[in-house]
Amino acid sequence: MDQAGGQRAAASTGRLEHGAVALARSQVQPDARPSGGDQRLAGEAPREVHRPLTRGDPTVSNWIYEFENQVHHRGREIAIIHNDQARTYDELNRSAAAFAHWVRERSATRVATYLTNCYEFYIAEFGTLKAGAESVAANYMFGEQTLRYVLRDSSADVLVVADKDLPAARAAIQGTEVRHLVTLDGPSGDGVTALADIVAGYPHYIESAPKDDHDLFNITYTSGTTGTPKGVMKTHRNIGAHVSNLVHAWKLSPASRWLCAGPVYHTSGLESSSLPVLAAGGSVISLRWQKDAFFRLVDRYRPDSAYIAGSMVVDIADYPHPERFDLGSLRQVIAGGAPMPARAYQKVLDRYSFVLCERLGMTEAGIIFVDKVGRPGAYEPREELPAHIAGSCGSPLYNQTQFRLIDVVTGEVRQEGEGELQVRGDSVFAGYLNMPERTAQSFTEDGWYISGDIVQIENGHARHLRRRDEIIISGGENVSPRTVENVVSAHPDVVEAAAFPLPHERWGQQVCVAVVVRVASSVTPTELLEFCSSGGKLARYEIPKQIFFTDELPKTPTQSVPRAKLTERYAAVRKPEPETAHD
């Protein structure tokens, strides 16, 4: 039985079980996966057919039904705007139906996308769901080796890529179960099918596959402390609960028009922005981040809200001539993924009339806290809003997710003060794909997800302090120090290496490495940086920005390297870095 099957078994008892509890019941087999069709367990009674998700109804979770409901009522209204082309709900639905036919014809069960923000991503994502398959989001910044790992781990049948990425995709699928490559424009041939040909050549209507609350919706890969990306499994209930929650909290409606610049391969770009807006019948302006395009699109398409990464706030704060654009429609900008730099935050408040909101969330559970200075959806005049607390990522969002803090020393449970954040509820993920032991370790026996985030809560406001596992968060991307160290240490002149973060105004943190080289080595830091950048060994955001040579690394009595000491040692000598580290 697979992990999703374990969740279905739990459903027959009338409650959703997560983590160690569900895994113990399901006896997970690492290579197991859904086989399609009727997946009821032996002796399990037929389930009710779920109605479309409605506001305030936590028991209904199939998001694709809600999208189709909007197609029925608002088919001629704009769903997606990308590259100055507006696509209606009906257009998107028809194209997704064609892709669904193609997926079913090939009996594909998992469809991976290796795309940045574009209209075609939504065709592939929604078509996959209509077909009854599961989507796999591969981070567009992953290098060839990491992409191959994701494809192999997920057992994806199909990979959808942009035309320019086809050579890298052909290399990455070697040794995987990928049987079909899809590019966006084509031409078709030589083992590749163009999405444009699929849309033109297949029927534009399909009856969407019925899915249970506990069937998998998608698998999103996120980096962890071991350096191996983890496949975060979200069920239809997980997505439905999170989307319903945000529709309520942000008072989304058919009048909502959001500029979404969060990457679609992240939770922020899909589950926390695009899906809630479309579920409410609103319009999404899809943007792969470019600061000039942000201002131009706000001026032209008049969004009331924007959803961006925290690092993008710097671009908005320092933009040279914002007065050239009419930004009057923009009421709020929601940022997250990495803390907003204090200087940039204050500069935005001084220069613009819109409200800037911070939030704290995670791939495994969605948004947990939002800065109520924005009171999303209410849009009070700014002079009537409560003052923003510097460094705060807000107060608990109205949702179906509980949270608590655990003192890392005493284990005491608390609601305020400092501690490790734990969360529980319908929006919390089902587990890590093919990692039953890691999943069990990530949950308490009574179902609380152990986030690893050390958070301080005072007077209802949360402040993210650090990661317990010393993960580096650069521009909203998780970077495992061990991954970087393994690559640097593979150089023949390197004896020892330790990765650590240094502050960076735009990215929050930048990846740096302290290196001990062998005696008489002539290798230079520049040569090591080139070594790390070559061959797709690291994702772009994982590549070190600076390398420091040292005679020896600091060590604890147990011979581990205290990374905080390296940060302290080199903070005063770091050099300014270019602003293209994650472009």
From TrEMBL:
Region (Disordered): 1-53
One annotated GO molecular function: medium-chain fatty acid-CoA ligase activity
All residue ranges annotated as the AMP-dependent synthetase/ligase domain in the record: 67-433
Biological processes annotated in GO: fatty acid metabolic process
This protein's UniProt keywords: Ligase
Family as reported in the entry's similarity comment: Belongs to the ATP-dependent AMP-binding enzyme family.
Source species, domain of life: Bacteria
Organism field: Amycolatopsis alkalitolerans
Full protein name: Acyl--CoA ligase
